[in-house]
Design goal:
By secondary structure, the protein is mainly α. It has one domain: Cytochrome c-like domain (Cytochrome Bc1 Complex, Chain D, domain 2), CATH 1.10.760. Helix content is 64%, strand content 0%. The N and C termini lie far apart (45 Å).
Length: 107
Amino acid sequence: MFVDTRILARLVVVSVLLCFTLRADDKTAASYRQKCAACHGADGKGQTPAAKSLGVRSFASPEVAKMSDAELSSAIENGKGKMPSYGKSTKPEEIKAMVGYIRTLAK
């Protein structure tokens, strides 16, 4: 049986990239659970007791959905209202990944 090595090489590259993406998503999800879920909820709907007392909006709300990635990144980096800032403890690429993760919770 003949296997084209170019096809095999492409499959290997795609597999490796997929593994790195899944690991990054796992790391971002773990970070979200650790830093964000207490207020925003595991599902991002803001239905926790803390969220209700602080007026946290759901990530699916029109107000949050219309925010740009830069605005969400700024809120994570600098804090917003009673939300603490995470800029000193979180790398820019981790903040970018968190914005992407938040967008998935908004669906």
